Amino acid sequence: MTKTEQTKKLILGIDTSCDETSVAITQNDRILANVISSQVELHKKYGGVVPAIAKREHEAKIDFVIMEALKNAGRQLDKKLTIKDMDAIAVTYGPGLAIALEVGIKRAKEMCIEFDKKLIAVNHMEGHLLSSLGLNSKENGEINYRDLKYPVMGLLISGGHTQLILMKGIGEYELLGETLDDAVGEAYDKTARMLGLGYPGGSVLTEMAKKGDETTVTFPIPMAKNPSLDFSFSGLKTAVYYTVKKLTEDGTTLTKEQVYNFSRSFEVSAISQLQIKLEKAIKKYNPKMILVGGGVSASAKVRMGLRKIAKKYDLKIYFPTKKLSTDNGAMIALVGYFKSLRKEFSSLELDREPNAVLVSK
Amino acid sequence: MEIIQVDQKNIDEVILATTRVLRAGGLVIYPTETCYGVGVNALDKTAVKKLIEYKKRPEGKAISIAVSGIEMAQKYVELNESAKNIYKTFLPGPVTVISKDLGRVEKDLVSEEGTLGVRVPKYELITDIIKNCDFPITATSANSSGKKTPYKISDIFENISQKQKDLIDLIIDAGELPHNPPSTVIDTTKEEMKVLRRGDIKVGRLLVDSIIKTDVEMQEAGVELIKKYKNLLKENCLIIMFNAELGAGKTQFVKGVAKEIGIKNNINSPTFILIKEYPYTNSESKGELIHIDAWRLESVEELKKLELENYIKNGNILAVEWAGRAQEYLDEISDTKVLKVYVEINYIDLNTRSIKIYDQDGTN
Fold first, then answer.
1. Does B266 share its domain with B168?
2. Contacts of A223 in chain B (CB under 8 A)
């Protein structure tokens, strides 16, 4: 290893905030490994895939996922890596499902004690917010964190969250608005279910919408005229539900065209609301650039809609790669790196905070 | 390897030749409305092994099958109501429907969860071949896993090795196909829990029966309920079970509950996280509001994994959305200190709901 290699920090990041058991290893802002349990073959080891909604499932998987991450990261550096080589262990403390968060925190603490490592507590939402700053193993990425110009407007859109966050620096955040009811990704999945597109059907709905015509039916855009930066998707969901209910009451099923058109009209309304709120936030806070995070950002139509607003205000907008957009350990390790630079370490008393809010400390 | 150029005149001949190859366990490259696919007899173990070798696909990854129509599909998978609707609406067409496997196709094609993808190509030549064979064939694109989608035979040849080429027995060449995207995959297996059955909940006395017209009124209904139970919380745990359709206003009701016990947090949907906890303290009691949403869970077994028994404590309020089939479990974990109410919300029209609140038989 060269001297600069030695001064680079290796962080192991763990996320068990909900369904996924994910562990990643970063070297500064470069992602060496990012293992997500649902994307690796665990069946051979555990005799069947089990949804990780429970403590037991996360517990069963976590050590295997840690080993995989060490193995993959070691391959990038051409050496065998162990926990001993890590500079710190970062772990999600919230928001998330309590019984799931506990597993990651417990394992992180155990490793810190056994190998005398520093513990870093990471807010899951900060992970999503900074996910587009992660560089791949060849050190390429959407944007390097050194090039950020503040204030940055953050828009987080996922199955569990919809938030606007103002970022005055890494670690300096202000929550500007969030959903008052359903998250945008949840609205996609629920609408897909109503249209008979299975579960989880958000991405199927996006496919169907490509063939749809939004002029045949118009769904409302909740909160469009509300001056706040909060979101709401429940009214949109209700409008689709009621329309479908009326049409299918007598036992008929929706036609192909109706499914296409309703999908498209839903998408138009949902994206419009994101655009309206983003634009409101831009006008009010004059950001220098925009960072988007969360699984919904993988939708091409959503990206297109948000790019349009960014372009109108001549702002650069950055999106994470697909793998970094959904829940993953790399974004946690990445935040861990930034926190380690600021020496923001946690005590071993760290406890889960299922309702954790991302605010400046 | 044989290549047949298909045109209007030789269709019957192509059907016969392809059937012969497939029956003998051969591997066929065939055109569909999406792209070129690779087919083998889905019931033939050796043929399926050959296909997996051709695809260079890691073992354990499921592979879909193509059938001639819904009747044939039902021999191989269990079609639930939503699957039947999708067949009716979208098939034949570029849609793959995932259903529960019945154990008749080669197990290498089946996913780890015991599900199987089925499609009916909108390409008569292929459905005719399947009918003639009388067995399903594999329906996966003719490229190696992860390689370019093949719309013409040269797309395939450019990206495969000689070894892979040697595995092909027959190519049905229909020229360059329109560049349509791959089929859309719809999973119909994960919605058992989401179908709420009426009559699953045993109810007691009718406490409230009213009409709600706005979100504020719905919140008010939550406030009123808690006013009735507030003085009992110190010595009891309250479970509020909802039976209501999507978008009926359950979250608004819970917002009212939260407000009345003194919770300042923004209450939003727990669907993704499954459980949200909000601690509270007021002059009469303290505890937590536990907002639970079972909508995306597949079974009561999954719900049990959430270890809800840990939340049964005096002072706590459990608001359970989609509680229909969870009642038995909730009964199981309840002790004598648990009070239960049952909230049923129904649509009257887009903006109007009827709400009925019952207590549970045998409690207070």
1. no
2. none
CB-neighbour burial class of residue B293 (10 A; exposed 0-12, middle 13-18, buried 19+): buried
Choose from B273, B307, B318 for mutation: most chain A CBs within 10 A: B273
Same domain, yes or no, for A195 and A123? no
Q: Do A175 and A315 fall within a single domain?
A: yes
Contact list in B for residue A48 (CB cut-off 8 A) is 112
- The total of structural domains in chain A comes to 2
Structural domain that includes position B348: 206-359
Residues of B in contact with A49 (CB under 8 A): 112-113
Cα gap A107→A346, rounded to integer Å: 15
Question: Quick check: is B78 in a domain?
Answer: yes
Taking only the tens of pLDDT, chain B with its 364 residues reads 999 999 989 999 999 999 999 999 999 999 999 999 999 999 999 999 999 999 987 766 789 999 999 999 999 999 998 899 999 999 999 999 999 999 999 999 998 888 999 999 999 999 999 999 999 999 999 987 777 889 999 999 998 999 999 999 999 999 999 999 889 999 888 765 444 444 556 678 899 999 999 999 999 999 999 999 999 999 999 999 998 888 899 999 999 999 999 999 999 999 999 999 999 999 889 999 999 998 888 777 888 888 899 999 999 999 999 876 677 888 889 888 899 999 999 999 988 999 999 987 654 4
Residue B264: is it exposed, middle or buried by C-beta count within 10 angstroms (0-12/13-18/19+)?
A: exposed
Number of domains in chain B: 2
- β-sheet bridge partners, residue B358: B206, B342
* CA B12, chain centre distance (Å): 39
Rounded to two decimals, the pTM is 0.89
